[in-house]
Specification:
single chain, 260 residues, Rossmann fold, 21% strand
């Protein structure tokens, strides 16, 4: 059995086999997929790498070399296994982009998981590029069987939160975005699983919201970053974005001060 509140350097498909069946209250994941827009942060707009080139500082080759077919095969296996570990009614939230969410939804259905909604994370700013510059990311909300009730009735399916700038992981998610999802979809002392822990945002959000977590990450450098962030704590500054039509409860914009 695995100890809680630890990040394990292990392939999640192997690590999850050590979890007790029907023990996980919530799953939050950002699986590795090639969006075709990732670029090294130290390059100018004129030096954007071609589709499929890995991040200069990422260190995980498979993160950007997954084909659509490879991603589909991997996620089919992942969702079947993680479903066994989830409690009945438990939620699973998967970050994905517009190119791959149809494949992801098929993988969820193949594993017998129920798709409840497609959430949108509005990052408040668009990226480099053309053809309507990207300003959002998708989050597929699914569950094992009928989903447990959310701890809120006022949150819409659009989350407003500034993206992390100059983070220590190439696809780092804001802690407050993850924290709000966790607080809506679980209770204190519940067990949260993140099978692709990366820079540790999910672990920090769990610590701040009094949830237990188990994480898997294959890159030892990212585990060091995550543990450093966990040990030093994270200070967040909340600001309400102009023109935000959502309620005050959906305020999740954050500027993290300990990520540089």
């Amino acid at each position: 059995m695995l100890e809680t509140n630890k990040i394990y350097q292990q392939d999640c498909l192997e690590g999850m086999k050590q979890l007790q069946d029907s023990s996980v209250d919530l799953v939050v994941i950002d699986p590795p997929y090639s969006s075709g827009t990732r670029q090294a942060s130290n390059r100018s707009a004129s030096q954007i790498p071609k589709r499929g080139e890995k991040w200069a500082k990422a260190g995980i080759v498979w993160d950007s070399s997954f084909s659509s077919f490879g991603l589909s095969v991997f996620m089919n296996t992942f969702y079947r296994l993680v479903s066994q570990k989830m409690k009945e009614g438990a939620h699973i939230y998967t970050f994905i982009d517009w190119r791959h969410y149809p494949l992801l939804m098929m993988s969820l259905e193949n594993a017998g998981l129920f798709i409840n909604n497609l959430l949108v994370w509005d990052k408040g700013m668009y990226t480099l590029g053309g053809n309507y510059r990207s300003q959002y990311e998708l989050i597929v909300f699914a569950s094992k069987g009928k989903s447990r009730r959310l701890n809120t009735t006022t949150q819409g399916n659009v989350f407003y939160c500034k993206r992390v700038v100059n983070g220590e992981h190439p696809t780092e998610k804001p802690v407050e975005l993850i924290k709000q999802i966790i607080e809506y979809a679980s209770n204190e002392n519940d067990l949260v699983l993140d099978a692709f822990m990366g820079g540790g945002s999910t672990a920090i959000a769990c610590k701040q919201s009094k949830r237990n977590f188990i994480g898997f990450e294959v890159n030892p450098d990212y585990i060091k970053i995550a543990n450093k962030r966990l040990n030093q704590g994270t200070v967040s500054e909340f600001t309400l974005p102009k023109g935000n039509p959502a309620t005050q409860e959906s305020l999740i914009c954050v500027k993290e001060e300990n990520q540089k």
